[in-house]
Structures are given as C-alpha cells and as structure tokens.
Amino acid sequence: MPAKSQLTRRRFLTLCASAPAMGLASAARASTQIWRGQAFGAEVSLELSSDALQVQQDLDAVVQELRQIEARFSIFSPSSELSQLNARGRIAVSEEMHEVLRLARRVHLASEGLFDPTIQPLWQALVEGRDTAQARALIGFERVEIGSSHVRLAPGQKLSLNGIAQGYATDRITALLRRRGYDHALVNMGEFRAMGGPYHLGVSDPEAGQLGRLSLTDGAVASSSPGAMRVGDETHILHPKGGVPLWSTVTVEARSAALADAVSTAFCLMPRDQMARVCERLDLGPVMMIDFEGNLETL
Predict the structure, then answer these.
(1) Which residue ranges does the chain devote to CATH 3.10.520.10?
(2) Direct distance between the N- and C-terminal alpha carbons of the chain, in angstroms, rounded to an integer
(3) b/e per residue, 204-218, with b = 16+ CB within 10 A?
(4) Scanning 19, 27, 73, 95, which has its CA 20 to 30 A from the CA of 123?
C-alpha cells in the first residue's frame, strides 16, 4: 500500500450476555467462556455466561452466525458475496444481502444521498494514490438496481457496506441470543445493541476524549468519527458529493444497530437542520454531535 495511505482499524466486537436468572442449582453450574478471533478485518471477542452445559453450544452458534455474516459482507475476502457482486456487476443475492441493501437504499434516500455505498472506487483510488475524478463519476447508489432476487451495479461501480454491515451483524447476533434463551446482552461491533439494560455507555471523540454518557435499554446506538481512520489525505468517511465532514463524532440512537450505523455515517456530513429532517423521516432517537472544537451538542 502506498505510504500516502494511513489506515488504522479500530473495530472491535465484544459480546457479553447472560441467560435468564437461574436457580441456585443451575447457578452452581454457571460458566463463562471467551472466544477470540478475527471478523470483518478486526479483532473480535465473544463472552457468554450461562449454564455450563449449554454455554459452549451457544458460543459455537454465535461464532457460526458471525462467520456466515462475514461471508456475505466482508470486503476483505475475495470469496464473499459482496466481493463477488463487485467483481461481476450483477448476481443473484441472498436474503441477507437484499435486506441490507434495501435498508441502505432507505437511508440513502432519507439522507438526500449522503449515505452512499458506491463510494468504494473513490476509496480505492485514494488508497492507491490515483486521480479521483473517474472514481467520483461512478458514485450514485440510485443507479444500483435492487431486484427481488438480484442486484445489478452500473458499469464500473463497486460497493462498500462497511457503514452498515457491522451494525447488521450486531442485530443478527442479538436476535440469535434471544432465540437461545438469553434476556440480557450487550453486543458491540463499534455499534451497540442492548437486550435488556440499562447499559451506561460513554460518548467519546478521538481527539477530545469522553464528553458524554448515555443509557441504553432494548435499543441500539452507533458512533462515527471521520478522523478515526484516514485514507490518503482524507478522512475515512468520504463525502459522495465532494464535501468534507462537518462533525468530529456523531452518535445516533435507533431501533436497530444497522440503522444507527448507516445514519451516523451520513450525519457526519450534515448540518444540524438536515439531521433534524432525517431524524423525523426515520424515527430516530437522540443524536449527540461533537464538533472539531470539542463541543458537544444534542439533537
């Protein structure tokens, strides 16, 4: 990779979950197990606490689910469904891919085009130190055809779903745990999803540090910080229309982690009045914004 590109990846998934309250006999058999590995190009750790006879099966199920999601959406694996779509331009897609792209389309429209997964060619041009004019001409998620069973990209287009896939994984793993009898969990892949609660989370900025706190119960929250990673001379959140980020960090509460993930990405590029319109369109929870001077605002 050219020296011009400075990439650091700070995505971590930490899952802590407990089964419903157990009696004394079951509590005596309680066990906590931890698995560590890699997913979506990041370090991953999973921690589950439950009856000792069940926890390993539950942990195995969570790891399997995570691997299946990565096989769909990872941009780091040439064999992933996303990589195959980018290579071929048109493929029959899975139900999971269809679900994520439909949500991405909804956020794209609500954000007036500021959430745009077709930014990937621009990312590649910046990483490789190439001229970006041709890559910018390829941007336009409205040109992606999302059919009932297939997806077709416009010629030359490629997608990155990094701004939504980790949130989707968080939602899927939370749902899996619920099906397996857990009623208290906090799943974190940079985006948080709470089952039960309340969980108390800090709101932090890469430069200013922690500036606020929030309480999360049966909901989701995501934060995006353009300066947390750089690509070439630009921040990793690229403006699809050629602008620059307006906020250092934005934190959004929503019904799902996938929605919060996508919206927080777009909100880094929006003035406050535009954010308010999107919040109404998508029925979002509170939004916390940190500007480049380190000031915290709430919407």
Answers:
(1) 6-75+162-196, 199-299
(2) 40
(3) bbeebeeeeebebee
(4) 95
Let me know the angle formed at the C-alpha of 204 by 13 and 222, rounded to the nearest 5 degrees. 50
pLDDT above 80: residue 42: no
Query: 199-299 has which fold?
Result: T-fold (3.10.520)
Contact 268, 229 (CB under 8 A): no
Helix or strand or coil: residue 112? coil
pTM score, whole prediction: 0.88
Strand segments (E) across 127-275: 145-146, 150-152, 184-189, 191-195, 199-205, 209-216, 220-224, 230-231, 234-235, 249-254
- Residue 227 CA, chain-centre distance (Å), reads 16
Query: How far is residue 275 from each of residues 133, 183, 278, measured CA to CA in Å?
Result: 28, 33, 5
3-state secondary structure of 234: strand
Residue 242: is its pLDDT beyond 60? Answer: yes
For domain 6-75+162-196, say whether CATH 3.10.520.10 is its number. yes
Task: State how far the Cα of 102 lies from the Cα of 181, in Å rounded to an integer.
Answer: 29
CB 73 within 8 A of CB 161: yes
Tokens of 204: 């932090």
Q: Give the chain's mean pLDDT.
A: 86
